[in-house]
């Protein structure tokens, strides 16, 4: 089964999604990420979606749910690298990414998470 790598950067976790997300992979990522938040005592999660050209409602909900789970585990979530087409799709689908902050790139996302600590 495919897995998306989760990198540790200090007290942050970085997830770079560089493959087309399908439902099973999204659920595996969610499980892996919540486990790593606990294991590494992470205070922040960066999800880089710059390689995603499209998202569907399931992936949008998965990102939102993952952020909610991270918050319960005392970690903030920032999504970085969102393409304009992805942002438009999320708005058109009526998805609100509650609890999810966004930044243009990883550098800005790290800075945002450091201010949130």
TrEMBL record:
Gene3D superfamilies assigned: STAS domain
InterPro entries from the UniProt entry: Bact_StressResp_Reg, STAS_dom, STAS_dom_sf
SUPFAM superfamilies found in the cross-reference section: SpoIIaa-like
Domain STAS: 2-113
UniProt-recorded name of the protein: STAS domain-containing protein
């Amino acid at each position: 089964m495919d897995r998306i790598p989760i990198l540790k950067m200090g007290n942050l976790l970085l997830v770079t999604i560089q493959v087309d997300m399908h439902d099973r992979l999204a659920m595996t990522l969610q499980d892996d990420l919540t486990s790593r938040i606990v294991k590494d005592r992470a205070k922040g999660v960066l999800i880089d979606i710059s390689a995603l050209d499209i998202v569907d409602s399931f992936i949008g909900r998965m990102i939102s749910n993952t952020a909610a789970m991270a918050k319960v585990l005392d970690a903030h979530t920032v999504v970085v690298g969102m393409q304009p087409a992805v942002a438009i799709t999320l708005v058109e689908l009526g998805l609100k990414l509650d609890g999810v902050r966004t930044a243009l790139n990883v550098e800005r996302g790290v800075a945002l998470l450091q201010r949130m600590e």
